Amino acid sequence: MKATFDGKSLRLGQEGISLYESGGYGRPEKGGIRLAPEEGLYLLWRNRIEVADHTFSGLLADLSGDTGFFRRYLVYRDLRERGYALQTGPHDFRVFRRGDRPGKGQSQYLVRVRAERDLVDFDQIVAEVATAGNMRKQYLIAAVDDEGELTYYEVKVNHLAEAGPEAGEGKAVGEAYGAVVLVRPAEAPWLAAEGYGKLLDAGEILLSPVETLYLMDAGRLTLVRGGAPLSREAYYGIAAETDGELGEKAIVYADLRRRGCGPKTGYKFGHHFRVYTAGLQHSLLLAHAIPEGTALPMAAISRSVRLANSVKKKMLFACVHTDDIQYIEFARIKL
């Protein structure tokens, strides 16, 4: 069957209805069906249609004015070859369960296509994941590298526990040496018991800046410097001079603590926190705090997920907004 190309999409006459009914290709319209560019090029590659005045390479050349077209085509072709029916849509593709197709059955995935160097806007991700959840769909990112290899990631909100156990009542006094805070363990044995700080050889407990701020906000830690009281605001100013991410890190640390988690530095994993839950001796999560308006390269996200997988942890990006924190989990999946 022969299609015509109008520069944006392809059209088949009445004979094209069989493609829609059998495989879910195109969208019906008066007198035939209209094919999205990815569908048309795939069917031409499969020798299931002809396109007037166009070879495969000629049609590809005409469609390549859209710089993102070829990687979308690669994803479309890959999913079709895996046995899925799909349609183009606002999230690049809407993918149906195997055996289902448009007009018959429900879609399972909303797929967004990204190249390895594309920036991933986390504000957009949070909104699109929420939309997918409201539609009861799984949200996927199909990442395409420079050699045309595809990796699929499921992206979802990780719903951590809403509230953890009540904070303890112990109190302590810490000595500040710049951003470094030391506490004598004999004066605050509860610190180690509750998972705060690190015991140094000199017999003192070193508190990180985020631990210090959290404990001060909870009214459980008082700071002094050179014998004089040091306020929370003054300490924050000192610590923030050498840590431009302290604000969002402190917010996420406090939120994780309130949820009953035990966050510790994740520096050796290249992220802000490794997170212990339910009294486990092994951390199961890595969390990285990112402020509102952040965009990260797809390649950086891929490295984070691979590293987390290699140490048997989940990778969470803690998106800090003015009134909420969304924990967005990226996980590689096989379709």
From TrEMBL:
Per the database record, which ranges form the tRNA intron endonuclease N-terminal domain?
A: 1-52, 180-235
Matches recorded under Pfam families:
tRNA_int_endo, tRNA_int_endo_N
* Record key words, sorted: Lyase, tRNA processing
Per UniProt, residues of the tRNA intron endonuclease catalytic domain are 69-152, 249-327
Q: Does the keyword Flavoprotein apply?
A: no
Top-rank EC class of the record's enzyme: lyase
NCBIfam families reported for this sequence: endA (TIGR00324)
Protein name, as recorded: tRNA-intron lyase
Q: Which organism is it from?
A: Methanofollis tationis
Gene name of this polypeptide: endA
